[in-house]
């Protein structure tokens, strides 16, 4: 991955995190900074998973949002149990 790919993944990851949080129903108990961090992680993981199948941008975006929603759901479950 080139440096421009990494920078764009970080920027897109911030948006992906917000979209992932919107996809998960109910109130989330995690901080917004953690949601954005999960979005960046989801952008990398989702981009890698999608690249195994195709490089079509819409498919990559959908996979990234699904991964972000899954991460937000999992981390929110961990935070809800602690509280």
UniProtKB/TrEMBL annotation:
The keyword Cell membrane appears for this protein: yes
Keywords for this protein: Cell membrane, Membrane, Transmembrane, Transmembrane helix
Name of the protein in its database record: Putative membrane protein YeaQ/YmgE (Transglycosylase-associated protein family)
One CC-aspect GO term: plasma membrane
The keyword Translocase appears for this protein: no
Similarity annotation: Belongs to the UPF0410 family.
Ranges that cross the membrane: 6-24, 31-50, 56-75
Domain of life: Bacteria
Primary localization: membrane
Localization annotation: Cell membrane
InterPro entries found in the cross-reference section: Transgly_assoc
Membrane topology: Multi-pass membrane protein
